[in-house]
Amino acid sequence: MDEARAREILAATGLPAREQDAPLLSLGENAVFGAGDLVVKIGRDAELLSRAERELTLASWLAEAGIPAVRAAEAAPRLVDGHPVTFWHRLPAAVRPAEPRDLAPLLRRIHALPEPASLTLPRRDLLGGVERWLRLAGDAVDPADAAYLRERRDSFAPAAAALTPHLAPGPIHGDALPRNVHVGPDGPVLVDLETFSSDLREHDLVVLALSRDRYGLDPAAYDAFTEAYGWDVRAWEGCAVLRGARETASCAWVAQHAPTNPKALAEFERRVASLRDGDPEVRWYPF
Questions:
Q1: What is the DSSP string of 2-71?
Q2: 11 near 3, Cβ under 8 Å?
Q3: Distance (Å, whole) CA 127 – CA 154
Q4: What confidence category does residue 74 fall into, taking pLDDT thresholds of 50, 70 and 90?
Q5: Where are the alpha helices (DSSP H) in 138-255?
Q6: Residues whose CB is less than 8 angstroms from the CB of residue 270 and which lie 6 or more positions away in sequence, other chains included
Q7: Cβ-count burial of 161 within 10 angstroms (0-12 exposed, 13-18 middle, 19+ buried)?
């Protein structure tokens, strides 16, 4: 799904014409548009419908728990031309960019939550999307690279399942990055709930450790995060396993964009090469 296709779906939702020219806020697993007082999320395919349903239920649960997070404008997703579409209340303009230190208090509150009574959270199936992403990539990526990622997935999946956690397992965000925090006039708010899970809390903490090593996160910003959270996951013996699983998933996620985006293909090839070479510090880039 490219932007043009996403806009066709946006028009099919029946929004007023003036809102069909809404700015595209992001394009990944979902196309996200800012339409007046709403944010509209359009899923890449019908397989994401159940996840969209769960995300809306999660928003209600977090509201009841008092967690600052995005709020749904409609209680159920719509299926439009085979794509799940959800509607959200648009947040006030950000007062500044989110930083890792803004994320830590939100994670502490989430990690203190018990299991929700309103739904059963899935495990954090970090590697579950690998096959679908590689399938979407098709012939755009080298079959040998795709096979290599499948082998890594099959190696890391049982290793991750056998880990002994340091923290008590339970609800997690699943993609704990500053980009998923919006700092508005009332403080930090959590956004993007689609990867919420119940699993090792360490999943949420490995994300920023990897950002420090792979994506150029300032080590001082990482230290501010660990100080605010109260623990550095790199001290845990299972960190390398979760990191390896996440790197595998991150490579495969990029692959789905390769058929329509040459920059994504180049970045996919860079990432796979660094994994093949066993170099944990080769810089990875957005595209």
A1: -HHHHHHHHHHTT--GGGTTPPEEEESSEEEEEETTEEEEEESSGGGHHHHHHHHHHHHHHHHHT--B--
A2: no
A3: 9
A4: very high
A5: 143-161, 202-214, 219-229, 239-255
A6: 282, 284, 285
A7: exposed
Q: Specify the DSSP element, H or E, that contains 269.
A: helix 262-277
Cβ neighbourhood burial of 37 (10 Å; 0-12, 13-18, 19+): exposed
Cα(104)–Cα(176) distance, integer angstroms: 9
Task: Collect all residues with Cβ–Cβ distance below 8 Å to 218 and sequence separation of at least 6.
Answer: none
In angstroms, the CA 10 to CA 91 distance is 20
Distances (CA, A) of 224 to 79, 94, 107, 175: 42, 21, 14, 19
Q: Each residue of 13-32: pLDDT tens digit? A: 988 877 767 999 988 889 99
The model's pLDDT over 36-70, given as tens digits with 9 standing for 90+, comes to 899 999 998 888 899 899 999 999 999 999 999 99
User: Phi/psi class of residue 14: alpha, beta or left (left: φ > 0; alpha: ψ in -120 to 50)?
Assistant: left
pLDDT at site 8: 92
Give tens-digit pLDDT for 85-120: 999 999 999 999 999 999 999 999 999 999 998 889
- Convert the pLDDT of each residue in 177-211 to its tens digit: 999 999 999 999 999 898 899 999 999 999 999 99
Burial of 151 (0-12, 13-18, 19+ CB in 10 A): exposed
> Given the DSSP bridges, would you call strands 197-199 and 170-172 parallel, antiparallel or unpaired?
antiparallel
Whether the CB-CB separation of 188 and 107 falls below 8 Å is answered with no
The amino acid occupying position 270 is R
DSSP string, 88-122: EEPPPPPSS---HHHHHHHHHHHHT----SSSPPP
- Rounded CA gap, 102 and 106, in Å? 7
